[in-house]
Amino acid sequence: MSPSGQRGFTLLELLVVVAIVALASAVVTMALPDPASTRLEREASRLAAILEAARVQARASGTLAGWAPGPGRPSSFGPDDRAEDADFHFQGLPPQHGLPQHWAERELSGRIEVQLPPGQRALVLGPEPVIPAQQLVLRLEDRSVRLGSDGLAPFAVISEDGDATRR
User: Fold this and answer.
1) Would you say the pTM of this structure is higher than 0.70?
2) Domains of the chain: which residue ranges?
3) First-to-final CA distance of the chain
4) Distance CA 99, CA 96 (A)
């Protein structure tokens, strides 16, 4: 009987393969965005769409309307929706407006801080097609996102360099 050739892999070959797989896994993990870090951006994009929907409703109904953070309270806009547990509310729109009043991720309720410009308690959403230029800042832990409109363009997330990004 002739001795047969060596079968299988050597320990060194196996270690090289394991090292390559580990390196590839690390690269893929670093390339994937952290879902926790994109939560605020998703909420900001959603809020921009909600503000635009409210702006359209205010223009269609011809009513002075506004948006403010927190549960409803009396305002100069007229009646508002008074959901006690709301994260934000609309003022001046009819009660059956159908717009959300909570963040998409309920665990963020009470954790997202909304900062309006000094002296401003609410955003004006209508009824005029051109509204004042307005901005607000959403903060969650150490992250912040700015939303705004120049008064003619729709509300959008504003990047650090000042450009509005439509998502």
Assistant:
1) yes
2) 60-165
3) 72
4) 8
